[in-house]
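User: Could you walk me through two proteins back to back? I'd like the raw sequence and the structure tokens for each, with a short line separating them so I can tell where one ends and the next begins.

Assistant: Of course. Protein one, sequence then structure:
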Amino acid sequence: MLVLGIDTSCDDTSASVLKDGRVILSNIVSSQSEIHSKYGGIVPELASRRHIEMIWPVVSEALEQAETALDEIEGIAVCYGPGLIGSLLVGCCFAKAIAYAKGIPLIGVNHLEGHLLSVLLNSPAPDFPFLSLIVSGGHTSLVRVDGVGRYKELGRTRDDAAGEAYDKVAKLLGLDYPGGPVIDRLAKEGNPEAVNFPRPYLHGSYDFSFSGLKTAVRNHIQSVKDRLEEERENIAASFQRAVIDVLVKKTEIAVKKEKIKRVALSGGVAANSELRERMKEMGESLGIEVYLPPLQLCTDNAAMIALTGYLHLMRKETSDLDLTAKAVLPIGT
């Protein structure tokens, strides 16, 4: 079975063709980073306009790379939320048009569920149940995954997502957008113990909070503004260490309390080199399995949308043509 996946949830236009829920025949991503970098963040109106321009070329390239045609596609999966409403509408309208014209099933996919299940494209893939840490620019959540459609959100960010904090701190440091990869590279040159930034553990809760840490970084930058150039690497390394200490510690607590021996990492920040290394170290110390997605499946991509759509299609769970984009969409809906 061939499923076409489409993701336009934020600023990347992506299309993927997946065979039998396992084989990625294509996974095309058109990035808008160059457009938004001058603003230090995503401009929603510019993002949606670019999606309109790129959606058909990206889908065409995905079909061509997969050596297939629309007439051979047996289902179309599209991310309908959460995300930027203007961006989501482009993908949803495009997917509904194809489903109607070709008479094939439409499957609306929750973006967060796509991240949760993306680890099933790993080889080997984890068995259920497993814990999943979603860490991206828009989301930071700790979720128990007991099966397809069976999710329990243990904790989420109360304010900034981890990736959002990275972007904002990068801007404070005068670095390029997106901030995550830049800070990750810069941190390798700095001392992570140079600045003792706060660790917002929120004891007694699985929730996260990074707004206070971001403020602490801003205040510190103000105090060293005359020598910021020489302090930049140390600030980046210390900030990153604080974020990752919290992410790893929260996951470790959840592993022990939920008594689950499998942990998966997903989302754009899952590409962070220090986070990946620390998660592997945690797994070794606790004697559990840690599943890290390949880098191309960390950031927003349509392969995870196609996979999730395929799994729901196998359960005969499809969407009507009145499927509506939703900016806010809790996991499990």
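----
Protein two, same layout:
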Amino acid sequence: MTSDDGTIPARIIRSLPLGVTAGAAVGALGGMIGLGGAEFRLPLLIGLFGFAALAAVIVNKAMSLIVVLTALPARLAAVPLADLGSHWTVAANLLAGSLLGAWAGASWAVRMRTTTLYKVLAALMVLMAAALVLTHTTTLGTLTLPGPVQTIAGVAAGFGIGVAAAIMGVAGGELLIPTIVLLYAIDIKTAGSLSLLVSLPTMLVAFARYSRDGSFAVLGANLRFVAVMVMGSIAGALVGGLLLGVIPDLVLIPSLAAILLISAVKLARHASPSV
């Protein structure tokens, strides 16, 4: 249970080892599929640690931002910034939509009724599960679109991804990577690095919008918890990266998708303003 301002009860705050463990589990899951794992963190923040919906989104956004900032140097080592320079128009195209989408999504989230936000989060969990399966179990083709149409499609896709990422408090790589591959015919490794370059400013915009809302105080009230869970997430991501490929995708991906779908059902069943 949470208090009215979305803070964690004392009995959970004192259980910092649980926060580290949960963060490590989330990081490991994300690391095994090359993502940050924020989509798995969100239902834990709500169901296990008792955050209300909006408070969970804000805390998840803060953690996602730190994890992305940590992952960016390693990702750029794998795909140097110089190699991404030739694709700057792709990032600019998506950012033209995602920055607006992030501001709009955060604005909508803070104005939604809590019960509505739970339902929206549940629907987005289903979307993330579908994107996960699509990206990791199929060979993504590419769309051949005329230049102006491709630009419009990029802005529209960026806007939608910005909205979804802001409302869930995630980086959005699950949606950005397949979008970059489909729209711009870029290989998936490069797409992963480009997604970070798009998601970082997009997350900063959403974070700035959330900072204007009273619910943002949840971060100040739970700094120790956020810190230990982030440390667990980073450590778990490193372990997950080492385990990459150990579990076959035909087993791992359906299992992770099932976790997201189960989480979606649980979120949809929330009927009270806070849990």
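Residues 97 and 156 are 6 Å apart (CA to CA).

Let me know if you want the two compared in more detail.
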